[in-house]
Amino acid sequence: MKSDVLKYLELAERQARDKKMKTNTKTYAYKYLELAEKHAEKIAARWVKDVRNNTRTPTYKKLNEKQLADQCTEFYQQFSKMFIYENIPDDVTKYFQKYALECYALDIPAKEAIYALILMRRNIWLYAEFQMIFNSAIAKQESLDTLNRTILLFDYAVYEVTKEYQELMKTT
Q1: Domains of the chain by range and CATH?
Q2: Among residues 142, 47, 140, 154, which one has the least CA distance to residue 96?
Q3: What is the rounded distance in angstroms from the CA atom of residue 54 to the CA atom of residue 104?
Q4: Tens of pLDDT along the chain (172 residues)?
Q5: What is the Cα–Cα distance from 46 to 127, expressed in whole angstroms?
Q6: How far is the C-alpha of 72 from the C-alpha of 155, rounded, in Å?
Q7: Which 3-state string (H, E, C) describes the chain?
Q8: Helix, strand, coil % in the chain, rounded to nearest 5
Q9: What's the whole-model pTM score?
Q10: Under 8 Å CB-to-CB from 80, ≥6 apart: which residues?
């Protein structure tokens, strides 16, 4: 089932084609978002293996694999909402706060929760590269733009998670 964001992007591309603009194929950003949404569970499964075996995230070894996979899958599903808006919508900010709260409740140290986000970013990008959605010379600039946007969004996530962790630590 496609998200509202993917439906919106499809409509925008259809309108661009109707106006005879240079959009004969899906944009790379659209392909990237579609990949993240359709394959969220596969990417999350790879992330679970990485986060459980990484020396920087030892707490994750003790946690339930399915719970971790579900948390990561939800993050990737939220990703398309983050990607298309200039400013991060309130519901996405609330999602970051929820992510921090869940990690905190699981006794995951802040540094590990943040490193887990870094691994999420790495896994989504590596999966896209593995699927070769950025395989032509023409796509180089679009892939660079997409990578820059991805990094920016994960930076926002790290900021919000850090801010929420600090608030939670004040209350305990």
Answers
A1: 4-17+25-171 (1.10.490.10)
A2: 154
A3: 19
A4: 566 666 656 655 655 555 444 443 457 777 778 888 888 999 999 999 999 999 999 999 999 999 999 999 988 887 777 777 777 778 888 888 999 999 999 999 999 999 999 999 999 888 877 776 556 655 677 777 778 888 888 898 899 999 999 999 998 7
A5: 9
A6: 16
A7: CCCHHHHHHHHHHHHHHHCCCCCCCCCHHHHHHHHHHHCHHHHHHHHHHHHHHCCCCHHHHHCCHHHHHHHHHHHHHHHHHHHHCCCCCHHHHHHHHHHHHHHHHCCCCHHHHHHHHHHHHHHHHHHHHHCCCCCCCCHHHHHHHHHHHHHHHHHHHHHHHHHHHHHHHHHC
A8: 80, 0, 20
A9: 0.78
A10: 3, 5, 6, 33, 36, 37
For the record, the structure tokens of 102 come out as: 């869940």
Q: Which two tokens stand for residue 5?
A: 């964001």
